[in-house]
Amino acid sequence: MVVIMAQILKYILPVLCLFFAACRTAGPARPGVEEAAVRGNSLSPLLKAGDSVRIHYGFYDTHEVQRGDIVVCRFSFRRDPLIKIARAVPGDRFALEERADGVSLLLVNGAVLTNSAGRPYDFTGRRKRMLALYARDYKGVIPPDSYLLLGDAAEGSLDSGRFGLAAREVIVGKAVR
After folding, report:
1. More exposed terminus of the chain, fewer Cβ within 10 Å: N or C?
2. Which of 87, 93, 96 is nearest to 132 (CA)?
3. Each residue's pLDDT tens digit, 66-105
4. Is pLDDT at 142 greater than 90 in this prediction?
5. Distance of CA 88 to the CA centre of its chain
6. Structural domain boundaries enclosing 164
7. For residues 49 and 144, is the Cβ–Cβ distance under 8 A?
């Protein structure tokens, strides 16, 4: 019994903590448009560090998030917003397909998900376990007001592979090149 409880705490508690942190925003979105420089390489090759984007804060107050949108998110666990790509939206089907080498590919609506360079996203270790939990718990369907957000780096970044599905409330704007 103690071993089972230890396993539950080892896997479930961190997931719950990340889920609740992701559901809380770090502050309200500012209305309007702002020019910003991309920091980091999680969106490379689509966007590189230093590239300029226009952020339309409040855009999703009147529009639905579309698959492929570049979104700006505010999480309580980060001071600065994150910029990611909405790879799956409510109602989309998703699953992990494990290859012989142990690496899993992500399928969205039956197709292998690839980045802007055509490279499939690779999921191993914690990233793989995180998405597998969501796929199991939600029976392979993105629930209402939840989004699968990924960087463009096929090997992963600080994205849904680390923090799970993102709640609609954390998406504060749309980024446009």
Report:
1. N
2. 96
3. 999 999 999 887 788 999 999 999 999 999 999 999 999 9
4. yes
5. 9
6. 2-176
7. no
Q: How many folded domains does the chain comprise? A: 1
Longest CA pairwise span in the chain (Å): 55
Residue in this structure with the two tokens 């942190």, named with its chain if needed: 21
The rounded Cα 81 to chain-centroid distance in angstroms is 13
Q: What is the 3-state secondary structure (H, E, C) of 40-80?
A: CCCCCCCCCCCCEEEEEECHHHCCCCCCCCEEEECCCCCCC
- Whether the CA torsion 158, 135, 98, 70 is positive or negative: it is negative
The alpha carbon of residue 34 and the mean position of all alpha carbons in its chain are separated, in whole angstroms, by: 22
99 residue type, one letter: R
Q: What's the CATH code of the domain at 37? A: 2.10.109.10
Q: Is the pLDDT of residue 16 over 70?
A: no
CA distance to 35, 43, 165, per residue, from 22 (Å): 25, 20, 8
